[in-house]
Every structure is written in structure tokens, then in C-alpha cells.
Amino acid sequence: MTQLNDCFNCQDFARVARRRLPGSLYHYIEGAADDELTARANVQAFERYQLVPRQLRDIRAVDMRRRVFGCDLEWPVFMAPTGMSRLFHPDGEQAVAREAARMGAGYMLSTMATSSLEEVADGSVGPKIFQLYLLNDDGLNRAIIDRCKAAGYDAICLTVDCVVAGNRERDLRFGLTVPPQLNRRNILSFVQKPLWGMRYLAHGGITLPNVPTPNGSKSLGTLTSYFAQKMEQNITWARVEQLQQYWGKPFIIKGLQSVADARDAVVAGVSGIIVSNHGGRQLDGSPAVLDLIADIVDAVDDQLEVVLDGGIRRGNHVVKALALGARACLIGRPYLYALSAYGQPGVARMLELMRRETERTLALIGVPHIDDLDRSALTHLESRPVYLSASVPTGALRSGAYS
Fold first, then answer.
1. Per-residue pLDDT at 217
2. 3-class secondary structure, 231
3. Cα-Cα end-to-end distance for the chain
């Protein structure tokens, strides 16, 4: 059995997680929509961008500090909002938030979390953002925003790419239900993982304390069904402006992928956007997020902050995304693998490894301060390896016009 100290990268943690989780739960983390092309593209895109090192630089002290969405970060990374974390390990969201704070990163708590927003706020001293799904009842929306105000969250992030559920065939194939139940598709995988079952039962199962409760019910199945019925399918920019005025602090939109939408976000006055395809779990066939970042950054022209979500597996991936203009990055699946494999100690080690990779990569390419990083640090496999000016648009990179 692999020991914690024998894990050195994301894939090591993923292999341990696969051995320890029932199959339906592992595939819930790993899976995506339809043929999962976009999920794979998110990761593979980083292979097409290569780093161009500069030598004879003073890299005795590498400074990664940056202020993003009103949060002071020592490492420009946020833990992405992921639902039902205690389903994978009892340490859950609170463990991830604590380790993010220890690493100088930020944490985003999902509406579908299995820990309350108050518990997470009380248990972590680091920057915290609440991820909001818009419901078709503004009374319920304002109620959750009021809870975030009282708990001292730094920002709210509205996710807009889930108005229709993606077609996640792995969940159907491996019999995932919420809450987990034995059925003909998954019974063997649960029977083969008795330790997971004992831990799950010992901690009383899970609930969703940030989801509005119909008639006082705490039934997980009732809550998820009720929440799905309440999801708003007509999110407008006018509604966004009303919500951000009610909130009164940094307000972020997550799930945009087009230049046109990014420009609309500028007009709406939001603080920033997270360029994301939901890890490939919604629309299959959309582009890799990394390939969209530079064009969107150029389009908004510093009028709002742009953050990347999708495909980060290494510290050098963080560096590549920042070089293309992202202010920060989100990490999702990697910390879920680590949490599933070893609980909070696993998350601690995974984040330590990735933070050191980021710092080491900056040193190796001769960038002592993260704000000095720009597109001159990259070349693209589809063009000849040349030193690129920071003003070169990615469209030209892809076409080879600057080769």
C-alpha cells in the first residue's frame, strides 16, 4: 500500500483514491460529460505551452504574493468549490479550508458542501469565498447572502454554467445516487470498500447545510431534489447587478468562456470572472480553458480580474496560466484525490508539493516576482520556439503568425 510520503504528484494521490473509494465515488470525481473530451483537453492543453527560461537572474527570494478578488494570497491559488466533500472523507471541507489557509491560498465553499458556511468560516483563518447557485426565489438567495455577510466571507462567486445538468454517463454507469445506496450497478464496489462504509456510517452520513430546507427536512435525497427544482434557468445581467448590490463586496461570475460574455461582465461591473467549463462536467466539446485565457484577458483590458479554472495538475501549470494573464488559478480534482486518499494530511502534502512546484518553476525560468511573469515566458508547440513579446495575442500564437 502506498504511504503518504510516497505520493509526489497528483496522479499518485489519484491512484490511492481509486483504491480506497467505492467505484461510483471515484468515478464521480474523475468523470465528466458525454465523451469527456473537454475534461481531457483541459489537462492536455498545458502540454502545448512550453516555458522559456531566462538565466542570470536573482532568484534568492521568489515572491508569489498577489491580491485577488479582495483576498491577500501568498500563493495565487484558490481551492475550487466542490460539492459533498465529506462523501469522500469525513475530514471534508473544513480540512481543505484549513490547509488552504496554511499554504497562503484561498478557499471557495460550494453551496452543495457538506459543512455549513459558518463552520468553515469559524475553522479557517484564510481567505474564503462562497460559491452561489442562483435559485428562482430571491428570498432564498438573499438569505444565503445574509449568512455569508454574518460569517465574514470575502466574496461571493455566482456559478452560471449549470442551468441545465450535464450528461455525466459515469454516474449512470456506476450507479451513483445521493445519498449513496446499494444497487445492481455498484453493490460490489461498496462491498469491496468496507473501510469507507464504516467511516461513512460512523459519522452519521452527510447533509447539505447550505441548501434551503423544505419543511424542515434533512433528508439528503429530499434536499437535492428540492434544490434541483429551485435552480434558476434564466440568469440575467440585471439579476447579477441586483445581487452584487445587495452583497456589497467583491462579486465574481464563474463559468464564462467567451470574450463577449467577459465584456458583458465588465459592463455589469462585477469584480472578476472565473473562466471555467466546470471541469468538463457540463458541455462536452467546449475548448480547453487555458486556450481561452489570453484572448479574454486582452478583451477586458484590466477592467476586471480573470482567474482560470480547469486542468491544473502541477505547479508549472499554475505558472503557465499566470503567464497567459490569469490573476490566479483554481484547483479542484487534485485536492479531492488527496482528501479521498488520506484526509487532511493528504491535502496538506498535495498542496505543499504543488506550492513548491510553483515556486521552483518561477525560479527556474528566472522570475523572482510573480508580477514580472508575462507571455514572454511561454512558447507554443504549434509555432516555432521564439521569445514572444507580452503583447502577442494567442490567436496569432495558434496560427503560427509569429513563428
1. 66
2. strand
3. 49
User: What pLDDT is stored for residue 191 in this prediction?
Assistant: 77
Residues facing residue 71 across a β-bridge: 68
Residue 334 backbone zone (phi > 0: left; psi -120 to 50: alpha; other: beta): alpha
Instruction: Work out the widest C-alpha separation in the chain, in whole angstroms.
Output: 66
Q: Report pLDDT for 401.
A: 31
- Amino acid in position 343: G
- How many Cβ atoms from other residues are within 10 Å of residue 115's Cβ? 24
CA angle, residues 88, 90, 94, in degrees to nearest 5: 100
Alpha carbon of 70 to those of 106, 210, 251, 272, 275: distances in Å? 11, 23, 10, 10, 18
Region label for 34, one of left (φ > 0), alpha (ψ between -120 and 50) or beta (otherwise): left
For the chain, what are the domain ranges?
A: 4-398
Q: Could you tell me if 362 and 57 are in contact, meaning their C-beta atoms sit under 8 angstroms apart?
A: no
With 60 as the cut, is the pLDDT of residue 383 above it?
Answer: no
126 is written with which cell numbers?
A: 484564510
Which grid coordinates are listed for 280? 468538463
CA 318 from chain center: how many Å? Answer: 13
- List Cα–Cα distances, 256 to 46, 158, 273, 304, 308, in angstroms: 20, 11, 7, 13, 10
Q: How confident is the model at residue 194 (pLDDT cuts 50, 70, 90)?
A: confident
Q: Is the pTM of this model over 0.85?
A: yes
Place of cell 465574481: 252
- The answer to whether the CB of 301 falls within 8 A of the CB of 352 is no
- What is the set of active-site residues? 278
Q: In 3-state terms, what secondary structure has residue 24?
A: helix
> How many other CB atoms sit within 10 Å of the CB of residue 6?
9
Residues paired with 128 in a beta bridge: 107
Query: Does residue 111 carry a pLDDT above 80?
Result: yes
Task: At 282, list the grid cell.
Answer: 457540463
Does an H or E element contain 97, and which?
helix 92-102
Q: Return the C-alpha cell found at 393.
A: 495575442
CATH of span 4-398: 3.20.20.70
**Cross-strand pairs, 51:** 378
pLDDT band at 56; cut points 50, 70, 90: very high
Angle at the Cα of 338 from the Cα atoms of 334 and 341, rounded to 5 degrees: 140
For residue range 358-382, list pLDDT tens digits in order. Answer: 999 999 999 999 999 999 999 987 7
Residue bearing cell 522559456: 52
Residues 70 and 271: beta-carbon distance below 8 Å: yes
